[in-house]
Design goal:
heterotrimer; A alpha/beta; B mainly alpha; C mainly alpha; A: Rossmann fold; ten-stranded mixed beta sheet; 39% helix; C: mainly alpha; MetI-like fold
Amino acid sequence: MLLDVRGLKKVYEGRQRPVEAIRDLTFGLDAGDLVCLVGPSGCGKTTLLKCMAGLLAPTEGEVRLRDKRITGPPPGMAVVFQEYGRSLFPWMSVRDNVELPLRNKGIARRQRQDLVAQALAVVGLADAHHAYPWQLSGGMQQRVAIARAVAYQPDVLLMDEPFAAVDAQTRADLEDLIRDLWRKLGVTILFVTHDIDEAVYLGQRVIILSSSPTVVREVLGVDLPERRDQLTTRSDSRFTELRAHVYAQIQAAKRESMEILATFGRAGSGKSSRSQSEAKSV
Amino acid sequence: MPAILGLSGLAGLLLLVEVLPYTGVVSADFLPPTHRIAAALVDEVAEGAFWSALWDTLVAWAVGLAIAVAAGIAAGIVIGAVPLLRALTASTIEFLRPIPSVAMIPLAVLLYGTEIQSTLMLVVYASFWQVLIQVLYGVQDVDPVAEETARSYGLGAWARVRYVLWPTALPYVMTGVRLAAAVALVLAITAELVIGAPGLGSRIAVAQSSNAVPNMYALIAVTGLLGVGINLAARGVERLLLSWHQSVRGEVLV
Amino acid sequence: MTNLLTRIGLALALPVVLFAAWWFGTEGSDNFYVPPLREILRTFPEVWTGERIRADVLPSLIRLAAGYTVAVFAGVCLGVLVGSRRRVRAVLEPVLEFFRAIPPPVLVPVIMLFAGIGDTMKVVVIAAGCVWPILLNTVEGVRAVDGVLADTCRSYGITGPARLRHLVLRSASPQIAAGMRQALSIGIILMVISEMFAASNGLGFTIVQFQRSFAIPDMWSGILLLGLLGLALSVLFRLAESRALAWYHGQRRAQRGLR
């Protein structure tokens, strides 16, 4: 197993009381997997991703990459954030943005240039080397962020709702780009989303999370054909069945948490009740 | 918690000044220990001349600031609201603004000697630009859609200034006033110090020339406290007046 | 083309009118303190000859450059140190605010105690006055580093000096530039004031000498020169800034366009 999440628990020290964002998560990714994580909004997806990326220390449990426990951002991992506008350096050209992590890795100049050119070509930005990120559209900016992650040659690529802030058509293009990259480069991808269609369309497996405090509700194998495209896959009856199943699961998760809420009279969701400074970093 | 840390920082400064002269790093003749500065401050506060100097400084500051703010707002709104005027004045404003206010000192001395008018001239000149520039930015920030809406509902020119332009520009105006208030104090003290117009500045000059070093430090501390007080008051007024505003913003990095 | 001509015309119209008003308004002036502009302009090249520029203007500018450079260096270094440690910031912020609130010219008598009346005193005065806006703005800028960008750096292993260079300093640079601009006008003020107090050469010294000896047209020409100097430095600063911060202004325009 390449990436292993074992008994992960994350409790934030809230102002009045501790908030349990994640209760107990265990799952794993093999090399070459494309797994989607989907759950109701506010279920701690971002918290989970930050724990996996080594940006946040879990309260209990552990994340292991190639059987080594993660205690800080590991070298073999790249993250693509939702806020593309804020995760690219506005003072660097597209090329420099992609190149910077490589320079830091100590890769030789020639090889660096090749990697940057390849990565930008593969995301369809071969002619945007010298532009600044803010001169590009939202979708193109996210492509730059993906190119940066690809050029970094990570063992695992973590994506945190990367397409939540782009329009629907761009989003479809980017989804196909991810499938393409995955098939061509064989990179291992964990894709976090709140969009059920997206999760089913992209993933080999879909991990469905419960509401916060979060546990794994179901791991669903997606038995759709390898080659997928927006038209035929989305109108496939198997696709419709799968998405209906995931949808039902998520609705059920929300309902249960409402019942718990009614019984215990307090919300478990963490996002609203914690401030950034209280989130302890690794 | 931050308040305690901040207080500990201030206490640390006082302690440092107390200890430094004893370590021999600096001579006590140049930097007297805190307790001597404090004693000098007590002496100053007991003197009537101190209070009249403080009063003079505050009067020059307040009158100069009031003139600059009134002139800056009026000029800013008129220039900002009329595109032709804006285009005509842009180059002149850019030209005049960077002229250092201290260049006026010899002129002020010749024209007014050591009277309060000398101080006023410098204060008004320096703080006027702060207000004007911010007001111009504020007027420029008026949402064209809001302006069109007001027009389409038949609001006259005055009503548009009153209900569209002024509320938009207000945060910028307040920023301008806050910056101008700080600049006005600096120029008031400077004019008194260099020209000798009555006020805290000239009292510092006297303390220096009569080698009353602790008194000099005490008076400088007073100017610093005055500056902090003015900043806090200006921020307080800003927050009070703009509490309705979505965000107390409207500062331009210029 | 006509557009450009109109813009040039608009930019020049008022200055020309003001110049003409000054020229003709003072043409027959017999007010001793307000000599005719013609007189001032005639005096200008006589007063500010090569020798005077070498002996007075240049020393002033060198002191300004030295003090300002020291202030930028110290302000940015300390600002980064203070800004990136939350504790340190909380402890030092009130002290720094206090120092910033002290009107810089009162530093002159204090620093004269320590550094006498030589060049060192003037450089120290300029540095000590200019450092606060740079320091406090750097603190602000460093504190406001974007959280997502900081996470990005961490997850790509960009830490230590690389982080400082590529993330912290760059993202604080618009704020630092704002502080440097404020500091520049403070620096010019202090350059003049420190020379008015105690000096044997320099722009401020010369202008005050003219005033004291009632050489009024000479004094006016000095005021004019100071004005031009202020203008020239501010134009230079602007040019440098718009080059260094092209990304920032471009980004702002892009965001404005979206609104």
